Each structure stands twice: as C-alpha cells, then as structure tokens.
Amino acid sequence: MNTAVATATAALALAVGLLTTPARAGQNCAEKPPSTDQIRRSLDLAVKTVRWLDDSGATLAVIARRGQNLDRYGLRYSHLGYVYRDEAAKAWRVVHKLNQCGTAESALYRQGLAEFFSDDLFDYEAALGIPTPAVQAALRPLLQDNARAAVLHHKPYSMVAYPWSQRYQQSNQWALETLACAVEPGACDRSRAQAWLQFKGYQPTTLNLSAGQRLGARIGTANVAFDDHPSARRFSDRIDTVTVDSVFAFLQRTALAGAPQTVR
C-alpha cells in the first residue's frame, strides 16, 4: 500500500471512530452509521476549511455548521464554536459545547475539524467569521485552558434556552457568554456576561412557536424546555434564543468581527 492510500485509509478509519461520539448539538441521538459519502464530504469540508483558515492569517475564528435544517425559521446555521490555531500541534482545534445524547446535560469538547464536521450534518457548509486581533488575543488563551474555557459552562441544557436566564444554557449561548468573559474580564459569571451582552445590544432570535409546537417538542425530548422563558412572551408564542445568525449579526454590529465567509 503506498503512502497516499495508507494516509487516506487511516483518515477514513479515524472518521468512522469519531462519528460514534455520543453527543450532538441539539439533535436527537441516532445509531445509524455514516455512509462512505458522508465521511468523504466531512473530510473534504475539513480540508477546505483548514486551507481557508491558513490563508486568512488569523489565529482564531468563529466557526458554524449546518447541522440541522432551520430554513422554516429563516436561519441558516445551527451550531457555533471557536476554532483556533494550536501552534504546538501545528493544527486547528475547535472548542464548542455539545448536548449529551438523550439527556438535558452538556459538556465542552475540543476537537479537530474532521470530527467537528462529522456530526451528521444537514449540509456540508461552514461559516467562518474572523474577530479583530484584540478579540483573537483575548479568546485564544482562554480557550486553550480547560479551566478557563469552562468558567461559564452550565451543564443543564435546553436547545431553546432563554438568553437572559441562568437556568439552562445551549451551545451557542455558551460561546456568546464566553466571548463576553474574554473581552470584558469583569463579566466572567453568567449574570454579568448577560448584562454586558444586553448593554452591547445583543438581540436574540425570536421563534414563533405555538402551544402545540412547544408541547410536541417538550414531550419525550429531554433537551428542550420552555420554563425559563418569561410567561408573557411564551404564552404569546414568542420564544427568544441564541442562534448562530444572531451571534454573527451581533459581532458585525459591534465591530468585534467581520462578516462571516462561507466554505463548502
């Protein structure tokens, strides 16, 4: 077996193993093994993303993927994390939060790009936003330190967690609150991080979900809860939550990062 074939075979085996990780970004657990085409497309997207990052000159970026089809809500991306250059390993690492399958709990993960894109994606597309040099310099050492990265992590999880409550925390919410802690050292508990985000004008996405839709989502689904939302908004079918699209809009509006770019 020549070197190129051996490398490809090893990468394929690695990808198959990575896809068994029992965590999802707000998705239901599925035991269906990935197809060869899914593995190939995941690895292809990872390679193209590495090239884009290398060419960007950045040491850190905000990264998003299309894990679910959110078109009916007018949203494109479902899951957000941070990707940074690990100089010691000469590789790019993603730090993000994932829901533990079948539970209302979550954990933080540090992964390679191949693993990040191997989570049963709806579409093989990434979005990358480059923060300002000052934001990169603040976020990168925080994310490289396991203890500091977890300062604002809250284990109880709801996919539609209310942005101004501390009862639950969803994946995009952890990323946004961690950004607040990195750029404003006095905002390193959840209430202060949320206060800083409100002061800076962060605007969550409002989903219009009827009582029937909320009931259907809640029954038999451990990772969805609505009891942290204000009654007045909930009973008028307005559910506010942190979405990737709203985070990208906030970063541009506050000049903390440039417009996201697409890699397919």
How would you describe this structure to a colleague?
The chain has 264 residues and is of the alpha+beta class. The chain has one domain (3-263): endopeptidase domain like (from Nostoc punctiforme) (endopeptidase fold (from Nostoc punctiforme), Alpha-Beta Complex). It is built from 10 helices and 9 strands. The strands form 2 sheets. Strands 1, 2, 3, 4, 5, 6 and 9 form a 7-stranded antiparallel β-sheet that branches. Helix 4 (133-144) crosses helix 6 (171-183) and helix 6 crosses helix 7.
Question: Which features characterize this protein?
Answer:
alpha+beta, 264 residues, endopeptidase fold (from Nostoc punctiforme), 10 helices, disordered N terminus, 7-stranded antiparallel beta sheet, 20% strand, globular, two-stranded antiparallel sheet, 39% helix
Summarize the structure.
This protein is of the alpha+beta class and 264 residues long. It is 39% helix and 20% strand.
